[in-house]
Each structure stands twice: as structure tokens, then as C-alpha cells.
Amino acid sequence: MTEEDIEKENAAITKAYKELLKVSYTTLSGDDKKLIRKAFDVAIDGHKDQRRKSGEAYIFHPLAVAKIVAQEIGLDGTSIAAALLHDVVEDSPDYKIKDIEKLFGKTIATIVDGLTKISSLSKEKDMNVSLQAENFRKMLLTLNDDVRVIIIKIADRLHNMQTMASMRPDKQEKIASETLYIYAPLAHRIGLYNIKTELEDLGLKYTEPNVYNDLFDKIKESKEEQDKYIEEFSEVIRNSLNKESFDYTIKGRPKSIFSIRKKMLKQGVSFDEVYDKFAVRIIYKSDEVNEKFYAWKIYSVVTDHFRPNPIRLRDWISSPKSTGYEALHITVMGPKGRWVEVQIRSERMNEIAEKGYAAHYKYKQDNEKEDNLESWINKLQEALENPDTNAVDFVEQFKLNLYSQEIFVFTPTGELKSLPKGATSLDFAFNIHTEVGMRTRGAKVNGKLVPLSHELQSGDQVDILTSETAKPNANWLDYATTARARSKIKSALKEDKKRIGEDGKEILRRKLKQLKITLNEASTNELVNYFKLKTSLDLFYRVGIGTIDNTMIKSYAASRSNALMSFIKNKITRKATIKKEDLEKEEVTAKYDSLVFGKEEEKLDYKISNCCNPIPGDEVFGFLTVNEGIKIHKKNCPNALSLQSNYAYRIMQAKWVDSSQQEFLAKIKVTGIDHIGLVSDITSIISDNMHVNMKSLSFESDDGLFSGKINVVVKNNTIIKKLLEKLKKINGIDKVTRV
């Protein structure tokens, strides 16, 4: 570079720095400006030898990120300084976290450390786990340190997306997929709607450039017509609003390219058939006392002129979203028979919608009980509690709660709770408290008894019925949709499996003792191999639930005593012979020979994908291809993230069926001589003695003879055989048969 170029660049850097101070949403004090200046000097020094892919000086990147943080998100001086320093420790050998702490104090050092942790992936990571998902999990864990870490990271990602043009196409696609998969939902959840929209549009631009460019051109072409329509619509209501002496502005807001594309795919329509390509926003001036009153007054004015769609009214003023968003949304039939969404917001509400977190704090009252962002972080911490979850699973579960629409339901005492759309009565139980969830026996919605899988609707009043004896079972995972409920149920099931495993270990020890075999590490490993299992816990658990019974253990003992003879025979013949009984022996382990799809666990035709070659037992999902039907991918397949990011509508839940975990319905017919207490004897054997769950029972008595039908749920036929044996021994029972 010539001296003239360097001079020009330095002038541009100075100009960008001055602009940063000028555009800040919060008023910067003298101390703030000194702090930002000091951070700017350290950033200049830390990045002095660096250039970006585009060729410009690297310092332009932290300056741009700081500008997004200051202007678009509206954070304070501390955050602006941290944004300027966000890459210094990672990129410069001259600065360590302790140097940042010495120069700027603990708060900024914590934020910079959090941002550095996110960027540098740990080297010892299990390479089977998706790096993006693992990185995301690490990023969420930094929320313990300071929520500003995530917010600055979102700003960093936004600037990277805005300046990706000079990168290789494969790198562009990877970063764009990750943005759609992780950062856009996070921005949405924190209430940064403008940034979320821009991230989604840029994500589409690099993942599906042809689609993006086509829609971009079409929107440009139709802009003039849209502006004319909005003006026509606004003109009708302007006179009435002026008569009421409102101080307001009316703006047309075009829908983002990403959301138009989403609507086209969801509804199967062309661009021209998407009618609500824009919304009309009415922003009015008001003091906080009259805000709600004015909003409904404007609603009244709009609906005097245009007929509203009654099922499309969204009142987020009475019940704000958990992101803090407040507004009144109505959809009305505008001129030329077109539906138009009208958003009614006060200036305060509009700032919160655009700035999220920062504006929320600006308008926060001292008497407000709990900040929405804080309560969200607390919920998030609960979702992070279960460290055993596979990283991709974790992201999937977490995303369920990030992007979902909300419903508002009431407790029996009238307290309002917000839950993701699609939440069930079981999710509500865990939302109240973990203990309530664990002890749930049933639920009443609006006074009526409903199943645990009942999907809740906004406005429902939910009462959870609990019992000391109730506990989670594997079916609960089909009823729960929220990350919190699912992680708690999984933990409880693991504990239950361990408890049954401990009982099974004792049973196995006693049975082996009778066969003159000691249960130790060697014999345990032999048994695990013999029954083709994975771990000793699988073995003990199956003994505990009766899948591995006496006969099978005796077969193992017999094979053990024959092992030496087989070894000698093999030595003599020097041929690796395959034992017929080994081939014919049925696997006790999970019957991983069939895949089931969706919550209904349907069996469908599928093909195994070549990119990751999943085998029975792997965690998988189905992907609906255009020409080849359903293809099965591992959840940590290298293509999983891009498929999830770009084609979420084609993803199907899938799992290998594990026979030991599955429960089956069995029908039993009982006949005999009737006497008082007979039904009680039968039910106590089934429920108390055998701990088997009854689905239904019916008994009839005729001239001293009785017959009964009982439907029970069992894990395997060993349990049903034992149950039939015990029922036969009851006094008065003549015949017990399985139908």
C-alpha cells in the first residue's frame, strides 16, 4: 500500500469511529467515551497486522459490530467497548484475558472471554458430534457469564453475513446454514426482530441464491404498486384518526423475502398468490397510562372502515410475548378484497420491538416484578441442566422453544403462563414445577378431564392432578414437546432404569450362584457379549424386567461349560466354524430391525443414505427426498445441519424400535367360580404384585360363574407368562387365556 492509501484508510477508520459515538442509542457519558476510546486504541493495536478477505483493514469489522451494538441493538458503553475488543484475545498474541481485565475491569473481560470461548472450539471434542451444535451448546452456557455475550455474538454474525461476498461459495453456504439454524432463532427469541429478519434474508441469499434473487426482483417490481395500495388504505383511516386528535405515523412494512418464501412453501402458492406481502404499522404517541386505551381506540377506528378477520386478532398488549414484545395485530379486508395486517403500537412498544433488550431496560419501571429476559435465561438454564444429551438433539429440543409461537394459559388460581404453541397438559405440569411434572396423574382443562397428550389452546384453564405414586414412563416422551419437560423425563427414566438395573443385578447374582458361577467383571462381560448387548446396565435392566429369564441364563451356563471343548475342537480342525445355535439364537437386545416414523410410530418404506450410512441403534431422522422417497440420516450426519436449516418442512422424526423399551397391549380372558373379593384378588395381583399397568377391565357374573376381560400393557411376553401363571393360582379361577 502507498502512503496515500494508508492515509485514506486511516481517515476512513477515524470517520467510522466518530460515527460510532454519534449514532449510539443510549446517551454516552464522558466516562463511556473514554472507555470506548481506550478499547478502540487496544483494538487498533491488536489487529494492526490483520486484513479481512476483502482486503480492508480488520479493524473495520470490530467497528461495524460495535456500531450494530450501539445503534441497532442500543446497548451501553460497556457493551460497545466489549464489541470493539471481541476478537482481540483470539487474534492477537499480545493480549490475554488477564490483560483485558487489568485494562478494562472484570465485566468487559468476562464478556470478551465468553466471546473468545465461542469462537475457539475445544480440540479434544468427539468428532462424531456436530461441531456447530456443540459450539451452540457452549455458546448458551456462556449465558451464565453475561447475556451480552450472546447479543454481541449475534451482532458479529450479522456483520459477517453482510460482508460474505468475497468468501468461497462452500464457506458462504456453511455460515449461512448455521445462521438460519442457530442465530436467527436466537435473535428472534431475544426480541431483535429487525436483526432476525436481516439474518434470515441473508441466510436465504447464500443457501438458495436463485430463489432469493428471483424474489428480490419481484418485490422490487411490485414496490410501486404496493406503495400506492398502502397510501390508498392509509388515506381512508387518516381522516378519522385526525378527528380523534391522535399524534401518529402510518408506515407500510414489506414482509421479508425469507418469510414470503416460507409462506409460498407452506401454502403451496406462487409469489403473486401471497396477498399479505406487507403490513401497515400505526405508531402513536402516548403516555404509559393511556397506551392501552389509545390502542383499542385506533382498533375501533380501523375496524369502522374495514371488516376485521375475527380469528386473526393478536392482543400482545394485555399479554406481552415473553420477549417483551407488545402490540395489537389485526387483519382486515382492505380495498380490492385484499387482506391487510395492521400493527398498532405506541412509540415505546415500537422501540421495544426494534431494539428488544435495551429499550426494555430504558422503559423499565422500578416496581416491575421480573424482567422477561431474566426469566427467559432462567428457563434456559433449566434446559441446559441435562449434560448427557447428544448435542444435535439438544439443539433440536432447544430450537423447539426458540422459534415457537406462544400460547397463554391460566392456572386454577387465574395466574397467566406462557407456553410454546403445541404444548400439552404434561408440558404445563413441568412448567409449574419439576415435582408437579414428575407426580402428574392427569389433567383437567376447563374443568374437563383430558389425556396428558392434550394440546393446549390460548385461554385454557389447566388444573394438574398429582399422585404420590405417579412417575414418568417412556410414553411421556411422546406427550411432551418442551425442552424442559423432555430433559426432566429422560433423566427420570434413566434413574428408573438404574434402579431396575440394581435389582436385576441382585437377581442375576442369586441365579448364577445356584449355577456355581460368580458374578464378577469377567462373567458380566461374557453375559453382555452372549446376549449381544452394549453395557452391563443393559444386561441388569433386562434381568430386572424379566426379558432375560432363568432358561436363558441356564443356556449361557451350558454354553460356558462347553466353551473349553469347543476351543479344543477348533484347535484340532483349525477351522472357524459358526455354531448353528448362535445363528438361530434370538437377540435379547433391542430389536433394531425396524424403523418407525413420527409420533404415531408408523412403519414406512425408506432407504439408507450413503453420506453417513446409519446402522440400527444410531440416532436418526428421515428426510423426504424429491425422487427417492424417505432417506435415513444420522442425527450427527455432516449434512444434517444444512438439511435441518433449509428443508425443515421435509424432516421426519424417526427411531429404531427397542423391544425392551416398547410396551405392548395384551388381552387376557379369565373364567371361574364367582365369590366375594375375586375381582380385588385379580387386580391386586396385576397392579400391586406384578406392577403391570391395566388399560381396561370388564367382568360379568351369571349364576355363580364369572368371566372377565382384562387389557394390560407389558414390555414383553415373559411378563405376560408370569402374570398368567399367578392368575391361575387364585382360588376360584378355572381358566386364564391370552386372547
From TrEMBL:
Name of the protein:
Bifunctional (P)ppGpp synthetase/guanosine-3',5'-bis(Diphosphate) 3'-pyrophosphohydrolase
Species assigned in the record: Flavivirga rizhaonensis
Q: What GO terms in the biological process aspect are recorded for it?
A: guanosine tetraphosphate metabolic process
What keywords tag this UniProt record? Hydrolase
Domain of life (superkingdom): Bacteria
What GO cellular-component annotations does this UniProt entry give?
A: plasma membrane
Q: What does this protein do?
A: In eubacteria ppGpp (guanosine 3'-diphosphate 5'-diphosphate) is a mediator of the stringent response that coordinates a variety of cellular activities in response to changes in nutritional abundance.
Q: Which PROSITE patterns match?
A: TGS (PS51880)
Keyword Secreted assigned to the entry: answer is no
